[in-house]
Amino acid sequence: MSDVEVFLETIADEQRRRDARLLVDLMAEVTGAAPAMWGGGIVGFGSRHYRYESGREGDVAAVGFAPRKAQTVLYLTGYLDSYADLLDRLGPHTHGKGCLYVKRVDRADQAALREIVARSYQAAGIAG
User: What is the reported pTM?
Assistant: First the structure.
């Protein structure tokens, strides 16, 4: 059993677990990348390198998610204002500058969600 499968089995809330499995399938299909654990609670697909003007740099998932207690957090490449056209179609959600918060992934517009994931992956400089 993969690390991702083990992690998914630890999600106590049944709805959150179903949403996580939905996202694993959707993100794997859209990106063509295998899921991998990033830290203790983020499932990511692909990786991208970042470097700030301050000199700080590192690697993060090109696209990923974390099933949190109250909602699922999607980690995307770039600021969310560049996804505004798709967010309008997505359905109920909230967001910060770079994170998208969705209470019920299964109730989100799946076509919009797929396009958001594809746009994020492409913005990371990865063909998808």
Answer: 0.91
Q: How many CB atoms lie within 10 A of CB 107?
A: 12
Range of the domain at 51: 3-123
| Pick from 61, 89, 57: nearest CA to 75 | 61
Q: For residue 1, name the pLDDT band (cuts at 50, 70, 90).
A: low
Work out how many domains the chain is built from and give that number: 1
98 falls within a domain: yes
CATH code for the domain in which residue 39 is found: 3.90.1150
Sheet arrangement for strand 57-67? 35-38, 42-51, 57-67, 72-75, 99-102, 94-95
Alpha helices, DSSP H, located in 13-64: 14-31
Return d(Cα 116, Cα 93) in angstroms, integer.
13
- Does a structural domain hold residue 71? yes
